[in-house]
C-alpha cells in the first residue's frame, strides 16, 4: 500500500477548532489551536484538561525558527504542561 499526502490544500489554523470521536472505547476530544501570535494567549486555557500535546512547526519557514524556539520554551515552562507527553 502506498500513501501520498499533498500539502497543496493545507492551510494554517486560524483560531481554534475541536473534534470529538470514539477511540478504542474512549471518548476523545482533540483541540486544534492556531499558532499565530494573536491566538497563543488562549493556549493556557486548555493545558489543565488535556493529556498530551502535538506541537506542529512549519519547518519550511526558516525565518520563524527563532520564534518557534521561544514559543516552545515558554510553553514548556508551564506547570500544567510539564510531565505530559509531547509530540513535536
Short descriptors:
88 residues; alpha+beta; Rossmann fold; two-stranded antiparallel ribbon; 2 helices; 4 strands; 18% helix
Describe this structure in words.
This protein has 88 residues and is α+β, with helices and mostly antiparallel strands. The protein is 18% helix and 23% strand. It has helices spanning 44-47, 65-76; strands at 16-23, 26-33, 53-54, 86-87. A two-stranded antiparallel ribbon has the order 1-2. The chain has a two-stranded parallel ribbon with strand order 3-4. The two termini are 26 Å apart.
Which helices and strands, and how do they pair?
Blueprint: E1 16-23, E2 26-33, H1 44-47, E3 53-54, H2 65-76, E4 86-87
Parallel strand pairs: 3-4
Antiparallel strand pairs: 1-2
What separation lies between the terminal Cα atoms?
A: 26 Å
Order of helices and strands: EEHEHE
* Spatial order of the strands forming the largest sheet: 1-2
Outline the biggest β-sheet.
2 strands, antiparallel
Q: Which percent bin holds the helix content?
A: 10-25%
Task: Report the CATH architecture.
Answer: 3-Layer(aba) Sandwich
Put the structure in a nutshell.
The protein is of the alpha+beta class and 88 residues long. The protein has helices at 44-47, 65-76; strands spanning 16-23, 26-33, 53-54, 86-87.
Amino acid at each position: 500500500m502506498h500513501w501520498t499526502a499533498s500539502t497543496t490544500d493545507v492551510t494554517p489554523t486560524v483560531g481554534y477548532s475541536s473534534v470529538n470521536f470514539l477511540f478504542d472505547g474512549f471518548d476523545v476530544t482533540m483541540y486544534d489551536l492556531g499558532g499565530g501570535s494573536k491566538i497563543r494567549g488562549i493556549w493556557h486555557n486548555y493545558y489543565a484538561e488535556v493529556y498530551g500535546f502535538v506541537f506542529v512547526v512549519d519547518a519550511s519557514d526558516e525565518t520563524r525558527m527563532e520564534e518557534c524556539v521561544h514559543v516552545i520554551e515558554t510553553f514548556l515552562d508551564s506547570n500544567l504542561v510539564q510531565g505530559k507527553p509531547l509530540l513535536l
